[in-house]
């Protein structure tokens, strides 16, 4: 009985830690993307860049799928952008709306003019900055709460089952 | 009377209070209310169980049908 209670309590604690870590991972992914888009935007504002150069500028840091996109582009230069997007290793913490915005932004970079590229990058960056700000506020508000609830819920379950 | 049941009720009360405080400070009053009600329900179920045992013992002592 004690072993079962310990196992259930441990699961509660692990769930709390996981929820808190998920918020951290999500904020990190959004930060990486916002920084990458900022770098691409800054590079594109100085001079006209090819798509490959633009992606190389963005692929500086973080676990972004931009190097994978570059590799796919080099392997199949004539491939459809939408098909390339589907095969990218997207971060699991990104929400569908954010992923769609990024897909739309990267797809737009394939065919857009210099002006349109800058507008697309600015639009996506603005959207991600908003999401990142909301995520940071949520992490500051709820991150510790989830950890505390995990520990307290684990203790409550242990008391009830023992 | 078994002391461990009393300790269990006290522990549940203490934990539910801390959980409610944490939730209230995080601005989740609605979930705090649900947690408090769940705690009350758990304690009531324990008390009802104990009351049932008391009634059974009274029936046995006075040999009531």
Features:
heterodimer; A: 162 residues; mainly alpha; B: 65 residues
Measured by DSSP, the beta-strand proportion of chain B falls in under 5%
Please tally the helical runs of chain A, counting DSSP H or I stretches of 4 or more residues.
6
What is the N-to-C order of secondary-structure elements of chain A (H for helix, E for strand)? HHHHHH
Distance between the termini of chain A: 7 Å
Give the biggest beta sheet of chain A.
none
Intertermini distance of chain B = 24 Å
- Find the count of extended strands of chain A (DSSP E, 2+ residues): 0
Q: How much β-strand is present in the residues of chain A? A: under 5%
* Main interface: chain pair and counts: A-B, 11 and 13 residues
Low-confidence stretches of chain B: none
Radius of gyration of chain A: 21 Å
**Multimerization status:** heterodimer
Number of strands of chain B: 0
Low-confidence stretches of chain A: none
Instruction: Tell me the Rg of chain B in angstroms.
Output: 16 Å
Largest sheet report of chain B: none
How confident is the prediction overall: mean pLDDT of chain B?
Answer: 90
Helices and strands, with pairings:
The complex is a heterodimer of chains A (162) and B (65).
Chain A: H1 2-46, H2 51-58, H3 66-75, H4 81-86, H5 96-111, H6 114-161
Chain B: H1 3-25, H2 29-61
Give a quick rundown of the structure.
Chain A is an all-alpha fold. Chain A has helices at residues 2-46, 51-58, 66-75, 81-86, 96-111, 114-161.
Can you describe this structure?
- The complex is a heterodimer of chains A (162) and B (65).
- Chain A has 162 residues and is mainly alpha-helical.
- Helices cover 82% and strands 0% of the residues of chain A.
- Chain A has helices at 2-46, 51-58, 66-75, 81-86, 96-111, 114-161.
- In chain A, helix 1 (2-46) runs antiparallel to helix 6 (114-161), helix 2 runs antiparallel to helix 3 and helix 5 runs antiparallel to helix 6 (114-161).
- The longest helix of chain A has 48 residues, at 114-161.
- Chain A is elongated and about 70 Å long.
- Chain B has 65 residues and is mainly α.
- The model of chain B has no long low-confidence stretch (mean pLDDT 90).
- The chains are: A mainly alpha (162), B mainly alpha (65).
- At the A-B interface, helix 6 of A face helix 1 of B.
